[in-house]
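Researcher: Structure prediction, please.
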Amino acid sequence: MKLLRMIIVAAVAIPALTACSASFEDVRAQMDAIRQKPRGTVEPPPEFTPMPTFTYAAHQLRSPFAPPISAEQLLMSSGKKVEPDLTRPAEYLERFSLEALRFRGAMQRPGGPLFALIEDGDGGVQRVKVGSYLGKNHGRIVEVAPNLVSIIEVVPDGRDGWVERPRSLSLSE
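Model: Predicted structure follows.
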């Protein structure tokens, strides 16, 4: 039995080993033929052409997300020179755009002025009164009513000047 197994293993192994040695010659011949061929060249990368730069200059114009204001409202301050006070220290609510602020209510002490409660863009509520500033366009509160806050903003007029623009915040539910 052992002898029979050895004969079978030898009968299978000898042709397999012979086939391996023959295939190495074919592989060597194929590799030599490949080495004999001329080598290719790699093309250089394409020339980089820089794109022309663009300077954004519309930051002085009205935001496309703000409602349009009529020309009559913009020209209501004819005759007087309007200019924001750039030396004044900025108040807390001037960090936020007017669209991000919400009028949440009003309160008044007995015999005192009416204060408005304004929710800022971070979710906090600030108490303001007539003369306080808010919004990014130098907005000054000119009137506080129980359901409305009237504001005058000083915005660029597009011709190197400034113009006053009336805005308001109404009570939101």
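Model: The mean pLDDT is 82.
Researcher: Thanks, that helps.
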